[in-house]
Amino acid sequence: MSAVKKQHVLVIGVDGCRYDSLVAADTPVLDALASRGFLAPVRVDERNPTISGPVWSTVASGVYSDRHLIRDNRLEGHRLDRYPDFLSRVRELVPGASTFAAAAWGPLVTPAAGGPVFAPGGYRPAFPADSEDGELDTIALMDEAVTSRVARRLLRDAPTVTFAYLLLVDMVGHHEGVTPRYRAAIEGCDEQIGVMLAAIDSRPGRDEEEWTVIVVTDHGHRDAGHHGGDSDEERTAWICAAGPGITRGDGVDHADIHPHVLSVLGVEVEPSWELEGSAMN
Ligand SMILES: [Zn+2]
User: Fold this and answer.
1) Which burial class, exposed, middle or buried, applies to 204 when counting CB atoms under 10 A from its CB (0-12, 13-18, 19+)?
2) How far is the CA of 52 from the centre of ligand 1 (A)?
3) Which of 46, 50, 108, 148 could form a disulfide with 103 if both were Cys (CB 3.0 to 4.6 A apart)?
4) 173 CA → ligand 1 middle, Å
């Protein structure tokens, strides 16, 4: 006889991380996650440009830019009221559920640029030196703050669903392209993911819980940096995930994350939601 375990989900967004760069980097945390589930390349759907705003909005809402109407990093005029993010759906449909989001990029969790993508909002670290000067150092500190805040929340009160987002990899790509520093940013990101997962595994009562962990990037980068075009380097994203019921990596898509989160929590998808994807099992 075994009690029904409480389900939790952690979705970690890593912005602008090329698939080939990820595979080449030393990432023991993601390797271990993949060994319990999968790591798979994801072709950014043709309805989305290879830009953060549209693709993160697809991760959140489960529909593409033809429906959520976000075509770039200005979110004004979006239809996320009609196609809400998975944190909002969980709070509405799962009794007693709690959610938490944290990101350095404002439009995901604050009203910046017409946001937030995640309507419940969330934590965005800010620093006095939050300016163009020394921007990479600032972003690195913001990612550390996001990691720390998320790890503390996971350890202490384990929200039902958490969204955490790390920005430095993409910013290094913009500053100098796919360089040794870009690889180092990926490896640092893997360590930050490790801190979040260690917090989960340190929880009192961990044995009574089941955790789904989904790590995802939105797009790649050109060799010299930047994205938004249709090259394979820009269009090839990836998902790495493990958790109860996760069996498939082949053919997974950004739009599968929203229905997967709902599926883990026992929420049945309504046809009227017009979701494009399906659970990853
Ligand atoms: Zn970018």
Assistant:
1) exposed
2) 6
3) 108
4) 7
